[in-house]
């Protein structure tokens, strides 16, 4: 069975993204509220549909929910841009895309605090979801709007969706 590596090292940052320390995934996700950076990429096709990934049941955060096309942690020693390129390649098999930065913000849940760097891109090529995901598909904006607030999506995604569909 797959599982997250609780010993993986993440940078700990301030709200401007300056590195102030380091901690393991387990430490960042155990309720400590250590602020750590993550990247999100929203992938649209040219018809305006939005690709969402299904989080596998084995994930330690929000298992089984639909989420941003790509979401991943910035590793210790890695830039936000490097993390975005790596995560998009690892999760969807995409290497040729033009990301546009949308926003960055602090997301807080009962278990963690993340400094989220959000990007979007239009992509009509082949998407190959990895085994890190439980698949994915393109959703119409109407499908997304009709499922908001019903426990279908992650809280992160629901908080971002209005910023990305302007």
Order of helices and strands: EEHEEEEHEEEHH
Which class do the helix and strand fractions yield? alpha+beta
Uncertain residue ranges? none
In the CATH hierarchy, the architecture is: Alpha-Beta Complex
| CATH topology group | Nucleoside Triphosphate Pyrophosphohydrolase
What does the average pLDDT come to?
92
Compute the number of strand runs.
9
Report the top-level CATH class: Alpha Beta
- The CATH superfamily appears as Nucleoside Triphosphate Pyrophosphohydrolase
Cα gyration radius (Å): 15 Å
N-to-C CA distance: 39 Å
Largest sheet: 7 strands, mixed
Q: Please tell me what the overall shape is.
A: globular
Q: What is the helix content?
A: 10-25%
Number of folding domains?
Answer: 1
What share of residues are in beta strands? 25-35%
Query: Number of helix segments?
Result: 4
